């Protein structure tokens, strides 16, 4: 965060996969519940303890498109790889609240 603090999230698995809550959404919702908003978020890091990168799922990308600024750096990191991207690259032409009539 711009104030120097960190907000963490973790996957919360559920036997009914649709009810699983991803780390990305948990971290963003925690930040917003603490009063932070998109302009307060300096970057987002998504890490995986595996060789390959773990990009966010579609549901997380949708939430990120609405709760992050378009050019906020998103760092994907694994044991062997690292990529810096942003939500505009991860989800081009995202449908957000600005599209509501």
Short summary:
InterPro entries: APOBEC/CMP_deaminase_Zn-bd, CMP_dCMP_dom, Cyt/Deoxycyt_deaminase, Cytidine_deaminase-like. With 101 residues, the chain is an alpha+beta fold.
Break the fold down into its secondary structure elements and pairings.
Elements: H1 23-33, E1 44-47, H2 58-67, E2 74-77, E3 82-85, H3 87-90
Parallel strand pairs: 1-2
Antiparallel strand pairs: 2-3
How would you characterize this protein structure?
The model has no long low-confidence stretch (mean pLDDT 95). The chain has a three-stranded mixed sheet with strand order 1-2-3. It has a single domain, classed as 3-Layer(aba) Sandwich (Cytidine Deaminase, domain 2). A hairpin with a 4-residue loop joins β2 (74-77) and β3 (82-85). The protein contains three helices and three strands; from the N terminus they run αβαββα. By secondary structure, the chain is an alpha+beta fold. It is globular and about 40 Å long. The protein has helices at residues 23-33, 58-67, 87-90, and strands at residues 44-47, 74-77, 82-85. The N and C termini lie far apart (32 Å).
Question: Features of this protein?
Answer:
101 residues; alpha+beta; three-stranded mixed beta sheet; 25% helix; globular; zinc ion binding; hydrolase; Cytidine_deaminase-like
User: In which order are the strands of the major sheet placed?
Assistant: 1-2-3
Sheet/helix structural class: alpha+beta
CATH architecture: 3-Layer(aba) Sandwich
Number of DSSP-assigned strands: 3
């Amino acid at each position: 965060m711009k104030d120097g603090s960190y907000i963490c999230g973790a996957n919360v698995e559920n036997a009914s996969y649709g009810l699983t809550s991803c780390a990305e959404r948990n971290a963003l919702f925690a930040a917003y519940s603490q009063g932070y908003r998109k302009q307060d978020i300096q970057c987002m890091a998504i890490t995986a303890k595996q060789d390959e990168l773990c990009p966010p799922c579609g549901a997380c990308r949708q939430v990120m498109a609405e709760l992050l600024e378009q050019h906020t750096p998103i760092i994907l990191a694994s044991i062997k790889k690292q990529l810096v991207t942003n939500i505009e690259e991860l989800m081009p032409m995202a449908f957000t609240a600005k599209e509501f009539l």
